[in-house]
Design a protein that fits this description.
- The chain has helices at about 5-30, 45-50, 50-60, 70-75, 95-110, 125, 140-160, 165-175, 175-200, 215-225, 265-275, 295-300, 305-320, 330-335; strands at about 35-40, 65-70, 85-90, 110-115, 130-135, 205-210, 230-235, 255-260, 280-285.
- It is α/β, with parallel strands linked by helices and about 325 residues long.
- A five-stranded parallel β-sheet has the order 2-1-3-4-5, sandwiched between helices.
Length: about 325
């Protein structure tokens, strides 16, 4: 595969799984001891990656759960944030200034703050009540944070008697590093083709529903916009027919992220519409990616991680074809995240 180290990838994802197991055990313990709320609290893309887990909690648990913006919660406060709250805070660098401020704010409220970081010895690693460190980089962090936040949600529900399949799902997740690598290998030819197709496109409508939507949002904002300076319009598939459809015509790029959960009909409706009005439709469908050892239920929950691992291959080809490294920024140092 182009510009890719399989051993490095599997090592990072295996480490993410081990950290997730520790996180799950900790969350179960805190919930059993009386935690009354679960907060996912990230900045930028890391916060977006928490959304599938927060949505799962909202659908399936009576434990109050929130995914809040670090930059806002320190200004507005939150009624549910207090001494019995559990805060799960992701930050790849461990130095994100908005997250540091939010960590200190949450701790001042008495909350138990758990950080998920890629680098030890950083403010978010040293100031948290508990820290789970697993080295990662931009090209491997999405899968890591998706899995860790999912395990936190599953653990909280297991501790409350709202699920009885936690151990089975954790066991299945042990297969994920290998299966993600297989997905990358299977997607590699199409990734190269798609990169050639979109290399000169200056604008994309990007959409998805359910667990796939946060990855659509993330890829548009954090990869195509931040790392490639390509304009995008991420829109939730349920909102597509309430405005964005009027922008679709021949020559307009529409990229649909399709998962395998109960919201799939929402995505399918967008696909059916776009086929009739644009010649620039791309569908990325996790159902086309074969896996072993992952149940249909877990595959549905893992759709964003599967999409992220496919899209990393697209990004690798895209940066080379456009001669625009993913690390190139214009304003990063000015805002000092």
């Amino acid at each position: 595969m182009f510009n890719f180290d399989p051993a490095r990838f599997e090592k990072i994802q295996s480490g993410a799984h081990e950290a997730a197991r520790g996180l799950g055990a900790l969350v179960q313990d805190l919930v059993r001891k009386g935690a009354d709320s679960l907060f996912f609290m990230g900045s930028g893309g890391a916060g977006i990656l928490m959304q599938p887990a927060a949505d799962l909690m909202a659908r399936c648990s009576s434990l109050p759960s929130f995914n809040v913006q670090c930059a806002e919660v320190v200004l507005t406060g939150h009624r549910a944030l207090g001494p019995k709250s559990v805060v799960v805070m992701p930050s790849l660098s461990g130095t994100t200034k908005e997250s540091i401020a939010a960590l200190r704010f949450a701790k001042a409220k008495g909350a138990t703050v758990i950080t998920l970081v890629g680098h030890d010895g950083t403010p978010l690693a040293t100031e948290a009540d508990r820290t789970f460190v697993n080295f990662a980089a931009d090209d491997t962090s999405c899968e890591m944070f998706y899995v860790q936040s999912l395990v936190a949600a599953l653990a909280a529900m297991q501790a409350r008697g709202e699920r009885a399949d936690y151990d089975r799902l954790i066991g299945e997740l042990a297969h994920l590093p290998r299966e993600l690598l297989r997905i990358k290998q299977a997607f590699e030819p199409r990734a190269a083709e798609l990169a050639r197709t979109i290399r000169d496109e200056g604008y994309h409508i990007i959409t998805g529903s359910g667990a796939a939507w946060p990855e659509a949002h993330y890829y548009g904002m954090c990869i195509l916009e931040e790392m490639q300076w390509i304009r995008t319009r991420p829109v939730q598939a349920a909102d597509f027919f309430h405005g964005t459809l009027e922008l679709v015509e021949k020559g307009v790029s529409v990229i649909v992220f399709a998962g395998e959960d109960a919201t799939r009909p929402v995505t399918d409706r967008v696909i059916a519409f776009a086929k009739g009005y644009t010649d620039r439709l791309i569908v990325l469908d996790t159902a086309e990616m074969a896996t072993e050892g992952l149940s249909p239920e877990l595959r549905a929950l893992l759709a964003p991680a599967m999409l992220a691992t496919m899209l990393e291959r697209l990004s690798a080809h895209l940066e080379a074809l456009r001669n625009h490294p993913l690390t190139t920024r214009r304003y990063y140092k000015r805002v000092a995240y």
